[in-house]
Design a protein that fits this description.
By secondary structure, the chain is mainly α. The protein has helices at residues 3-8, 10-19, 23-34, 39-45, 50-62, 81-105, 111-121, 128-154, and strands at 37-38, 66-71, 74-79.
Amino acid sequence: MNNSAIYAGGERFDRFFKALGDPHRIKILALLRERELSAGEILEAIDIVQSTLSHHMKTLTDAEAVIAVRHGKWTYYSLNGAMLEEASAFLKIYAEGTKEKRQETEVPGTQTSAVTDRRRKEEPAADPALKSAGKDADKSSKKKDKKSKKSKKKK
């Protein structure tokens, strides 16, 4: 996928990723990973009312994350595997670009590389320069407070 393909699918992916922004819809997708389900079966598994489920299913089908198929008076829902694969490929492009950028800027054996390696292995460590800058700012503000108190006393 080249950059023009990424931008061309932007609106489509925008809807898709917005649809994933709700915890109920994520639960619905998790249920549909197992098998195709009717609206009634989804309602039994998730504690929401029917009108709310209808809203969530419309959002998911409009985003092409889910496929709805009517059988008589029942609607059955399943995951849209093709769209999920396209969205995964869309994200992979960005992940690879980020990885390449990181590799371009890192030189093995340098301080930057060591810091990056440490951050990948453990929780990000606080930067000592930031700590000392914070202490200096605290000292500076305390000095200003003392000066303002002295000037008030003189008046």
